[in-house]
Amino acid sequence: MTLPFLHTERAGGILTVTMNQPETRNALTGNSAVAEFVALAEQVARDAGIQVVVLTGAGPVFSSGGNVKDMQRFFDDAITPAMIRDEYRFGIQRLTKALYNLEVPTIAAVNGPAVGAGCDLACMCDIRIASDTASFAESFIKVGIVPGDGGAWLLPRVVGLSKALEMSFTGDAIGAAEALQCGLVSRVVAPDALRAEAMRLAERIAANPGPTLRLTKRLLREGQQHNLDTVLELSAGAQALAHKTAEHKAAVMGFVNRSRK
Fold first, then answer.
1. Separation of alpha carbons 120 and 138, rounded Å
2. To the nearest whole number, what is the mean pLDDT of the chain?
3. What's the mean pLDDT in 209-218?
4. 47, 97, 99, 156 - which has most CB atoms within 10 Å?
5. Rounded CA gap, 65 and 63, in Å?
C-alpha cells in the first residue's frame, strides 16, 4: 500500500511502514499523516496475520515532527485558542492514540533526526533501534510551545522523569550514543545496517504466536497503569484465551512429542 505519506511493505507477519515525504523531513502535520496512521492502525487490528510493525523514515530524517511553517496560520486572530485545542485533540493526538495502542509489537528504526513530535513518535513504539546518525530532541520549547502530542506522558516512561525534564526544558538534541545510554534506544547500528537489524529483530518476534504476542503486549501496557492485583486478574483472563489457541496446542504437543524421543 502506498499513500501520500505512508508506504507499506509486507513480508510474512512483518509490516514495514515508511514515512515517505523526505521533502518535508517526514513532518507529521499539515498533511495526511494523521489520517493515514489511524487507517493503518485499523488495518493492523483487523489483520490477525500481522505480528510486528517496523516504522522508519525515507531520506536522512526520521521525522521533523510538527510542520513549523504551517504553525504561522495560528497567528490569525480568527483562529481561537478553543479551535487550536480541538485541532490537537482531533489531529495529532489521534495519531498518538492509534500508534501507541497498536495491538502488535512495534519497532522504530530511527534512521536520522527525530525532532519534537518525531521524537515522541519513536516513543510511541515499543522498541527503538537507531542509526548512529540519529538524534533525538524534545524541542517544543525551542519554538515556544509544549508537547501537544502526548510527549509529556510518553518520554518519562521511556527515559525516566529526570532525563525527560532535561530534554524538555532545554530542547537540546542528544545523539545516538547518549540515547542508548539513557534507554531511549536499545541498540545503535551503522546506517546501512539499520533496516537489516530491525528486520532481524522483527523476525525473532514474528516467530512467536501472533495471538499471544497481542495479549502479551496488552498485559505489559496494562501493567504500566494498574496495580498487581488488577494485572493478575487480567493475566488470568488473557491466559485462558491463550490456552485455547491453536498455536499454544501445537507448541505444547511439539514439546511433548520431542520429550518422548
1. 8
2. 95
3. 95
4. 99
5. 5
pLDDT at residue 1 tops 60: no
Q: Which position has the grid cell 520549547? A: 141
Of 110, 4, 130, 120, nearest to 61 by C-alpha is 110
- Determine contact, residues 177/166, Cβ cutoff 8 Å: no
Alpha helical stretches, state H, the chain: 33-46, 81-89, 92-100, 117-124, 151-159, 161-170, 176-181, 194-206, 210-223, 228-243, 246-260
pLDDT, mean of residues 77-90:
95
Decide: 107 and 49 in contact? Cβ < 8 Å.
no
Q: Quick one: pLDDT at residue 259? A: 80
Pair 43, 104: CB distance under 8 Å:
no
Whether the Cβ atoms of residue 9 and residue 15 lie closer than 8 Å to each other: yes
Q: What is the strand order of the sheet 173-175 is part of? A: 113-115, 135-137, 173-175
Residue 124: CB atoms within 10 Å: 25
What Å distances lie between residue 131 and 43, 60, 128, 174, 195, CA to CA?
28, 10, 10, 13, 9
**Does residue 2 have a pLDDT over 90?**
no
Cα–Cα nearest to 174, from 235, 252, 217, 110: 110
Q: State how far the Cα of 124 lies from the Cα of 94, in Å rounded to an integer.
A: 12
Q: What is the pLDDT of residue 169?
A: 98
**Whole-prediction pTM value?**
0.93
CA 35 to chain centre: 16
In order of start, what are the domains of the chain with their CATH numbers? 6-206 (3.90.226.10), 210-260 (1.10.12)
**110 within 8 A of 137, measured Cβ to Cβ:** no
